[in-house]
Write a structure and sequence with these properties.
Layout (H helix, E strand, L loop, with lengths): L33 H6 L4 H29 L10 H36 L7 H20 L27 H29 L12 H33 L12 H35 L6 H14 L15 H13 L1 H15 L8 H24 L1 H7 L3 H31 L5 H27 L16 H34 L38 H6 E3 L5 E3 L3 H4 L16 H17 L2 H20 L24 H7 L12
Antiparallel strand pairs: 1-2
Helix pairs in contact: 2-3, 2-4, 2-15, 3-4, 3-5, 3-7, 3-13, 4-5, 4-18, 5-6, 5-18, 6-7, 6-8, 7-8, 7-10, 7-11, 7-13, 8-10, 10-11, 11-13, 11-14, 13-14, 14-15, 18-19
Bound molecules: protoporphyrin IX containing FE and copper (II) ion (CU).
Protoporphyrin IX containing FE binds next to helix 2, helix 3, helix 13 and helix 15.
């Protein structure tokens, strides 16, 4: 596909001349305003925002399912949900929160921020980027449409065989799980390729790897985890699809299959998956803490190296999820040890964050409080994780509420808390107005108290022997008090979410009534995205920045006096080189990413219900790919004076001169896809 693409950075924006419509619908759409400009957008910023809106909408679904669970378990013997429906609700809650909320929320921030943090105009393959987003959204909608088509998946988020077979799960719920995750898997894989090539090829001159912000680094490592973790689960899902839809027996022990094969394949993905959800959170914390401590991140190289170490070691611990599956003592010991070791690089990060805030002039904004909360909450989750590494102890803990407490402390207390902090921190850059800090502090405290009231007691319930995934319990088992407390906590979390929504609305209304632009750098921050106006202009940078050191933007704002204290030498607004953006070229909207991705759920419906749908889906897919292939680049090259190096005319035509300065290896390749 890249071969067909002209160099998109050369295209004028939005004044690009209307492309001639050589083949009618195969020409590029030109809408730059209204819903069409979102539907056909290939702009990384818009795609980031769409990921954000979609994943927070799925959070509303996953959160409602969590409230249903907690309401059912508030008292012994409740009858709000039947056992069968309860199985569907907790399964869909787990699947939604992991695949449709936390993972894509990090994709939202990565899409919006990575090109800005490395000084690029967009990602390497803008249309593929749009394709990733639509695959994710259609995969998520397909998965949730099961609620209206017979019921959701009911085998738990890790969906063990043989319970997942048609014998034990005759409904279509697990077919929706299987095919839905195959579709969202395409989104993550294509997204990973895109971001890896973007970071490797599109860094601004001078932005060497060891000058990249920690969030860019952790996201970069994360994409490799996705690339290596997704294949095992993709294979497992295909095998399960063949078992359920075509009568194969890969997981049927009676006919020579092996149910444990599913567990190995699932957790080969499943454990790296937890790092896929926490490494970007570590990156975000490493961005936010220095800004509100007024100090650089402590031990930058160790921050990077420990992220790489976690990335590698994360692939060597998967069987700690299977200590109770009858594995032999040798493998149990090996996986116990490897699991304990992974605590080391994680500990390095926690110590570096502590050292960063130590002696700093802390500014307790809502963003800072959410980011800081990761340190105690993730440490609690991490420590209970270390107790799981002791196989004898784990045999007691596995499948109890102690485990449910553990992974909510790391996934909610870790990842989700930081994501909320990320909203407060980058909101002015994305939308051009600040969220209200007072409401933000209410939001924080309600979330913090609600969270600990919900999941803290679960440690006790688990150690008292309460199994997970039970739809009720009887009076007098000793589970009453802590379950009731946990449910109150869950409702406090629900109130905190409402406070957040109110904050978004009130701040937006206030901005509309009296627009006050926060300026490029409202937090006096350190990285490149804060050197350009808020909200970010469509072309990102008037000039491709030239980088000379780590935290280059900070060092252009601050020098040092004799005592080494930072002294302001320039304002953020004066740092980014200004120029006329008229000549900056950017990728143009395209119909085909959404058309191609729309074919996938139709094929999936066809495989479950009626092959007619699959034929329709295949036509959409093939037709869309064809349209994509022959779609002209935004404007015929002849209409734009540019050379093949991919560098467009900077406002003063100097970009190529700047690029020419760099050694060949570092010369940036223009985005083509
Ligand atoms: C919003 C507040 C939340 C509440 C009140 C909540 C509550 C619960 C409860 C009570 C369970 C256990 C169900 C059972 O075993 O019967 C559960 C399971 C689960 N939760 Fe949450 N949760 C919340 C948020 C999250 C978040 C943010 C994630 C992030 C990834 C998450 C991921 C999961 C997973 C993976 C399961 C396991 C489902 C399974 O057993 O298959 N939850 N949740
Ligand atoms: Cu694990």
């Amino acid at each position: 596909m890249a071969v067909i693409e002209a160099d998109t950075t050369q295209l004028a924006l939005p004044t690009a001349p209307k492309p001639t419509k050589p083949l009618g619908i195969f020409a590029r759409p030109v809408a730059t305003k209204g819903w069409k400009s979102w539907l056909f957008s290939v702009d990384h910023k818009r795609i980031g925002i769409m990921y954000g809106v979609a994943s927070m909408s799925f959070f509303a679904i996953g959160g409602s399912e969590a409230l249903l669970i907690r309401t059912q378990l508030a008292r012994p013997g409740q009858k709000l949900l039947s056992a069968a429906l309860y199985n569907q609700v907790f399964t869909m809650h787990g699947v939604t929160m992991i695949f449709l909320v936390v993972m894509p929320l990090f994709a939202a921030f990565a899409n919006y921020l990575i090109p800005l943090q490395i000084g690029a105009r967009d990602v390497a393959f803008p249309r593929l980027n749009a394709f990733s987003f639509w695959c994710y959204l259609f995969g998520g909608l397909f998965l949730n449409s099961s609620w209206f088509l017979g019921g959701g998946a009911d085998g738990g988020w890790f969906n063990y065989a043989p319970n997942s077979s048609v014998t034990f799960s005759p409904g279509h719920g697990i077919d929706f799980y299987t095919l839905g995750l195959l579709i969202t898997g395409i989104a993550s894989t294509v997204g990973a390729v895109n971001l890896i090539i973007t970071v490797m090829n599109l860094r601004a001159p001078g932005m060497t790897y060891m000058r990249m912000p920690v969030f860019t680094w952790m996201t970069f490592i994360n994409q490799f985890l996705l690339l290596f973790a997704l294949p095992p689960i993709t294979v497992a899902l295909f095998l399960l699809m063949f078992d359920r839809l075509f009568g194969a027996n890969f997981f049927n022990a009676a006919l020579g299959g092996d149910p444990l094969l599913w567990q190995h394949l699932f957790w080969l993905f499943g454990h790296p998956e937890v790092y896929i959800m926490v490494l970007p959170a570590f990156g975000m914390v490493s961005e936010i803490l220095p800004v509100f401590s007024r100090k650089p991140i402590f031990g930058y190289p160790f921050m990077v190296a420990s992220g790489v170490a976690i990335g590698f070691m994360g692939f060597g611990v998967w069987a700690h999820h299977m200590f109770a599956s009858g594995m032999g003592p040798v493998s149990v010991t090996a996986f116990s040890l490897s699991t304990m070791f992974i605590a080391v690089p994680t500990g390095v990060k926690i110590l570096n964050w502590m050292a960063t805030i130590y002696g700093g002039r802390l500014k307790m904004t809502a963003a800072m409080m959410f980011a800081l909360a990761l340190i105690p909450l993730f440490t609690i989750g991490g420590l209970s994780g270390v107790t799981h590494a002791f196989a004898p102890a784990d045999t007691q803990q596995t499948d109890t509420y102690y485990i449910v407490a553990h992974f909510h402390y790391v996934l909610f207390g870790g990842s989700f808390f930081v994501l909320l902090g990320g909203f407060y921190f980058w909101w002015p850059k994305i939308f051009g107005f600040m969220l209200d800090e007072k409401l933000g502090k209410w939001h924080f405290w309600l979330t913090f108290i609600g969270f600990n009231l919900t999941f803290g007691p679960m440690h006790m319930l688990g150690l008292q022997g309460m199994s997970r995934r039970i739809f009720t319990y009887s009076e007098g088992q000793g589970f009453d008090l802590w379950n009731f407390v946990a449910t109150i906590g869950a409702y406090i979390i629900a109130i905190s979410v409402i406070v957040f929504l109110v904050n978004c609305w009130v701040s937006y209304r206030r901005h509309k009534a009296n627009p006050v632009n926060p300026g490029p750098d409202p937090w006096d921050a350190r990285t490149l995205e804060w050197s350009i106006p808020s909200p970010t202009p469509e072309h990102n940078f008037d000039y491709v920045p030239q980088i000379e050191e780590l935290d280059d933007f900070w060092h252009r704002k601050y020098g040092h006096d004799e005592q080494g204290r930072p002294v302001k030498i320039a304002d953020a607004a004066d740092i980014a080189q200004k120029g006329d953006a008229k000549n900056v070229h950017l990728p143009s909207p395209s119909y085909w990413p959404i058309v191609v991705s729309a074919g996938l759920p139709f094929i999936a419906y066809g495989l479950i219900f009626n092959l007619g749908w699959a034929i329709l889906g295949s036509i959409l897919l093939a037709g869309g790919v064809w349209g994509w292939v022959i779609e002209p680049s935004t404007a015929p090259a002849s209409e734009h004076p540019h050379d093949d190096s991919g560098h467009g005319d900077e406002p003063d035509g100097s970009a190529d001169a700047a690029a020419a300065e760099l050694p060949a290896a570092e010369r940036e390749e223009a985005p083509v896809g």
